């Protein structure tokens, strides 16, 4: 199914990802290799179709970046409107996870202590532990 160009693999979903999705969705079903390959090709074609349509919608609205709204409009215009509510749910989940990650990464920044000071404190603690270890070793 892949041509000799070598770039076709760059344009498909990794087979490991498809295998994992199949196993999670259908844990008690065996799927033939050619059926797996067909699923990979269908998924790849679906993504190309949606992304091409979203790109056209994006260009028509004179934007340079495809947004989730462009993808949702593409689904609607291509007749996949029944997917939209689930897509919006997944989008909300992604936003929630991203927000949690941002909050977690900004905790250090919110301490108000410069990174250099934190490193100095860390080195001081390491030195104290080293001294304590030396004292313990002498006691033995």
TrEMBL record:
GO terms for biological process: negative regulation of transcription by RNA polymerase II; regulation of cell division; RNA polymerase II preinitiation complex assembly. It comes from Catharus fuscescens (Veery). It holds the Pfam family CBFD_NFYB_HMF. This is Protein Dr1. The gene is Dr1. Gene3D superfamilies: Histone, subunit A (1.10.20.10). One of its GO terms (cellular component) is ATAC complex. InterPro entries: CBFA_NFYB_domain, Histone-fold, Ncb2. Belongs to the NC2 beta/DR1 family. Keywords: Nucleus. It is found in: Nucleus. Residues 12-75 form the Transcription factor CBF/NF-Y/archaeal histone domain. GO terms for molecular function: protein heterodimerization activity; RNA polymerase II general transcription initiation factor activity; TBP-class protein binding. The keyword Acetylation does not apply.
């Amino acid at each position: 199914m892949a041509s000799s160009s070598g770039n076709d693999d760059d344009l498909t979903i990794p087979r490991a990802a498809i295998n994992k999705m199949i196993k999670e969705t259908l844990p008690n079903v065996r799927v033939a290799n050619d059926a797996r390959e067909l699923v990979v090709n269908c998924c790849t074609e679906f993504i190309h179709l949606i992304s091409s349509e979203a790109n056209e919608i994006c260009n028509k609205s004179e934007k340079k970046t495809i947004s989730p709204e462009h993808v949702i409009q593409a689904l609607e215009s291509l007749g996949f409107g029944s997917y939209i509510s689930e897509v919006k749910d997944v989008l909300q989940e992604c936003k929630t996870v991203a927000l949690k990650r941002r909050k977690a990464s900004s905790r250090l920044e919110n301490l108000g202590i410069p990174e250099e000071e934190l490193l100095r404190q860390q080195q001081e603690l390491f030195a104290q532990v080293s001294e304590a270890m030396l004292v313990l070793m002498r006691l033995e």
